Amino acid sequence: MNRLLITLLLLPAILCAQQRQDTIHTTQQIYRTTAIAAGTTDRLDTYLSPQSYKGTTVRFLSSVLRCRTNCKDLLLNHEGAVDITHNNVDNADAISGHYDFTFAMMKRWSMMDNKLTLRAGGMTSLYLGFAYNTRNYANNPAQGYATWNIGCEGMLTYTLHIGHWTIPVTYSMRLPLVGLMFSPAYGQSYYELFYGGKYDNNIVLTDVTVPNLRHELTIDLPIWKKVSLHIGYLGDIRQAKPNHLKQHEYSHSFIIGATRRL
């Protein structure tokens, strides 16, 4: 009886130790990337204005890629952004921002004597954001965004060997397939929604009929021991048509940062 009681008391510690041991054996390498992306953006939200707004986007990017010996890799992405845009006649400005979190599980295949690596699998993402239009101070000045998606994630890496340098070139792609998003209806104010209690299909289903795509082309140049200079291109295409509204965000950015191999 005493042995059974001691075993039950120590069971959580035993399981925790086993989990840590499994993690050590299944995790081969970890790549941690921190970068800044800056470029141009084109935004449209007909809830705020029938005109598209163009300007500058600045993004902070953080990602962790866990490459495990069982060839089932994990990817965590965090992104925060601020956009400052203007309309075509330059008589109104808009300020917007978002936070985007993505988790992906991908199977890994190595080819061409490990020079080419393909990763593909499923992903889920959460997008939270806002937009404020300086021209709409009396009527619908701001808009909130909340979207949850599931879809596909893929990465293709070709490793160049130049002298004693190992230089990976990676193309990655994220393709949302289906999800849910929050949106007010056309002409519905936030006061009516939150204080008037007038629900009007404000949780909308999203699918591939309005396609979205995020892709990157990056290169990692070794600069010191396990640290590489991370540079490349980021393209982000987001579109939606909820409740007779039109929304899009087309951005093209240059990425610069650092990747550390742990």
Summarize the structure.
This protein has 262 residues and is mainly beta. It is 11% helix and 65% strand. A ten-stranded antiparallel barrel has the order 1-2-3-4-5-6-7-9-10-11.
Strand and helix map with partners:
Blueprint: H1 2-26, E1 27-45, E2 53-68, E3 72-86, E4 93-111, E5 116-133, E6 142-162, E7 165-182, H2 190-194, E8 203-206, E9 213-224, E10 227-240, E11 247-261
Antiparallel strand pairs: 1-2, 1-11, 2-3, 3-4, 4-5, 5-6, 6-7, 7-8, 7-9, 9-10, 10-11
Description:
The protein is mainly beta and 262 residues long. 11% of the residues lie in helices and 65% in strands. The protein is built from two helices and eleven strands; from the N terminus they run H-E-E-E-E-E-E-E-H-E-E-E-E. It has helices at residues 2-26, 190-194, and strands spanning 27-45, 53-68, 72-86, 93-111, 116-133, 142-162, 165-182, 203-206, 213-224, 227-240, 247-261. A ten-stranded antiparallel barrel has the order 1-2-3-4-5-6-7-9-10-11. The chain is elongated. Mean pLDDT is 89; it is low at 4-9 and 11-26.
